[in-house]
Amino acid sequence: MKLELGGGDFNRGGDWTNMDLNPVADIVHDLESFPYPQADESVDELYSSHCLEHLVDPIGVMNEISRICKVGARVEIRVPHPNSNHAMCAGHKHVFGPMVVRNCDHHFPHLTWSGQRRLFHQSTNYGACELLAEARRDLPFLAGLSDEAVMKWIPGTCHECCFHFFVGDNPTPFRQTGFNGAALDYLDT
């Protein structure tokens, strides 16, 4: 199964199954309600565009994506760049950018991934907004920099981040403990 999360009225269609709270979706489901209706390791590929920033618990969503995707599945998640003029527009609950991905993947994976599988970051692509051309025109010192470098560091020049992941086994799923030391077990072991 190729699953799109939150495609709404503008979903990919074709051989993609759209899951959304929108009544036009192939599977009508609240993406903030866990668990998702898919069985463990039932999704071959997952795509989500400009959806994650609308959800309260993006880390919970990413853990749920890891649960329903097969090991080796490709996952593409697109979100507004945190420095974009659209990062915190109406309906957005948070920003989700490259540093969040880096923290989840490199710095705090043991605190992020609670299941038997997790997302491993492969690459990030940046999508330009109309201000990139203006920045290049108005800021001559940018002449030697690639568009990607400018979009990465100059606020307002990048519209979106496109993160590419693959699903793999999680070597260190976390078990959170409460104040009294009792395990709050998030694993099905």
Give the uncertain stretches in residue-range form: 177-189
Distance between the termini: 26 Å
Domain module tally:
1
CATH superfamily: Vaccinia Virus protein VP39
In short:
It contains 5 helices and 9 strands. It is α/β, with parallel strands linked by helices.
Main features:
single chain; 189 residues; alpha/beta; Rossmann fold; 7-stranded mixed sheet; two-stranded antiparallel ribbon; 5 helices; globular
Detailed description of the structure:
The chain is of the alpha/beta class and 189 residues long. The chain has one domain: Rossmann fold (3-Layer(aba) Sandwich). Helix content is 21%, strand content 31%. The chain contains 5 helices and 9 strands. The chain has helices at 58-68, 98-107, 109-112, 131-138, 147-153; strands at 2-5, 16-20, 27-28, 43-49, 69-80, 117-128, 158-169, 176-177, 183-184. The strands form 2 sheets. A 7-stranded mixed β-sheet has the order 3-2-1-4-5-7-6. A two-stranded antiparallel ribbon has the order 8-9. β4 (43-49), α1 and β5 form a beta-alpha-beta unit. The protein is globular, with a radius of gyration of 18 Å. It starts with a strand and ends in a 5-residue tail after the last strand. Residues 177-189 have low confidence and may be disordered.
